[in-house]
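Dear colleagues,

As part of the handover before I leave the project, I'm documenting each prediction I ran so the next person doesn't have to rerun anything. This entry is a single chain, and its sequence is reproduced below.
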Amino acid sequence: DGVLSKIDIPEEQKGLQLITGTSADISQVKELDDLAFGQHQGISEAELQEIIDNGFVILLKDPEGNLIGEAQLITKQTPGLKYQLADNEAYAYGTAIHPEIQGKGLGQITGEAQRLLAKQAGKETIVLTVRAENVASLRSRFKQGFQVTNFDPEYYGSAEEGGSRIIMKSSVERGQTPEKELLKLIKSNSIATFNGQNFDEQ
């Protein structure tokens, strides 16, 4: 994949392959997603097909060709996407890294792939949601330039059922923030901000 070859993979991880998946990869992607998310609701094969039809499923493979990570990016509105995409937005639906190799920066590589594919699709902003308790994902996304723009306590159902989500956005231009959105939310006092791991409602 042309645009994915531009990603700078760290020296200690040379040999990793980034490619976009097809319908033939769905069962393998679902297996990895289920393994990575365990007790949390995983993605269905039908959802993965909908994402492939309306965006990308990104595959991260080791030098031997084993699937070790995957990420999804939606570039046009789908019936299964709760968030209403603006024309200039892409939605980073999810990322899964094999549990045995999490914490090694592989999420940064798949996140960069999402950013480049969104930019290639003519989008300006990437949106995503994260569970409030998923500190590792929040840290990773902050490193990638994402900012918290909202908190929905019932995005996927009640908070007690694990349905709450933090909504984050980033410009596809690395390190930039969609400032108009942030300023609007700050003025309305509805923005939730993070200082390290401390969550403060303002």
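Residues 175-202 have pLDDT under 50 and may be disordered. The longest strand covers residues 89-97.

All the best with the project,
I.
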